[in-house]
Write a structure and sequence with these properties.
- By secondary structure, this protein is an alpha+beta fold.
- The chain has 2 domains: 1-81, no CATH class; 96-247, C8orf32 fold.
- The chain has helices at 5-14, 23-36, 41-50, 54-81, 87-98, 104-121, 128-142, 160-166, 171-184, 222-231, 246-263, 267-281; strands at residues 146-147, 168-169, 189-194, 197-203, 208-212, 218-221.
């Protein structure tokens, strides 16, 4: 929602009362901010920069999280109801909860460029293996995406914007990116959790194999994966490993972020994402 200039100025004036001890004043501020939605974020960020009082800054940070949680929760709810459910859009929504001023057009352009440059390398007559080899070459050689092996569970490597910026990701985020790219290019793929890893499955009724983006797109035939699972003491029945729908990919992303922030000792951020998960889980 976009406020007019008069409403923005009213809200700017109201923020001068952000340290008022009156609960009714604070309630009114919160109500106005929630009504303004994302239009309030630049005002809050500016107010944060204008003060050196740590207590006021803390209160502004709380208000920022409140606005973002309400806004992102509503956006994800509406996304969940839409028939298309574009996954990249939802990944950006989740990233905005951590990065309120995220440059959406920058990352959307980077994503579309990656799709286009990969498509240009593909032969329209290539078989699935050939097309996947093109994706592997584009992602891991030309674009230099790679597995983060030192601290893969660090929160930053779950955010799509950070993966694009750093060219690094963990098993989950690289699988998401690979799945997105392959899907956009018309390949019949899905994303599958197997143990603690995430693989991309290709199945068209005849061919059935798996890709491990964390290992630079290493391809495993179904029989090879069964043997790997058997060696690891896991069920080799591949039917036990269901593909993730887009809403459940997002739910898993949020759960991974909760765990990552808990390990990092950032319990306030863990609670922020736990609250978001609770808000959207009821709609799945």
């Amino acid at each position: 929602m976009h406020f007019c200039i008069v409403e923005i100025e009213r809200l700017r004036a109201l923020l001068y009362l952000v340290d008022d001890p009156d609960p009714q004043v604070q309630s009114h501020i919160e109500e106005m901010l929630l009504t303004a939605g994302q239009s309030a974020i630049p005002l809050l960020e500016q107010k944060w920069l204008e003060t050196s009082d740590p207590l006021i800054q803390q209160r502004i940070e709380e208000l920022l999280e409140l606005v973002q949680l309400e806004t992102i929760g509503q956006l994800l709810y509406e996304w969940r109801l839409a028939p298309e459910q574009p996954l990249f859009t939802a990944l950006i929504y989740v990233a905005q909860l951590r990065y309120p001023s995220l440059n959406i057009s920058k990352y959307t352009s980077a994503y579309r460029r990656l799709i286009h440059t990969t498509w240009l390398q593909m032969s329209p007559h290539g078989d699935p293996f050939e097309k996947l080899l093109v994706i592997n070459r584009q992602l891991f050689v030309q674009e230099r995406f790679q597995a983060e092996v030192t601290r893969p569970a660090t929160p930053r490597y779950y955010y799509i914007n950070e993966v694009i910026d750093t060219r690094r990701g963990n098993s989950f985020s690289l699988a998401v990116l690979y799945y997105l790219l392959a899907s956009e290019l018309g390949l019949q793929v899905s994303m599958v959790p197997i143990g603690s890893q995430y693989l991309v499955r290709y199945f068209d009724g005849n061919l059935h194999f798996y890709i491990d983006p964390y290992r630079k797109g290493y391809i495993l035939l179904a029989a090879q994966l069964k043997q790997t699972l058997r060696n690891a003491g896991l069920s080799e029945n591949l039917a036990h490993y269901a593909s993730l729908s887009h809403p459940y990919i997002i739910l898993r992303l949020i759960m991974h972020l909760e765990d990552a922030y808990e390990r990092a000792g950032e319990l306030d951020k863990k609670m922020l994402f736990a609250t978001l998960r609770e808000r959207i889980h009821m709609h799945l």
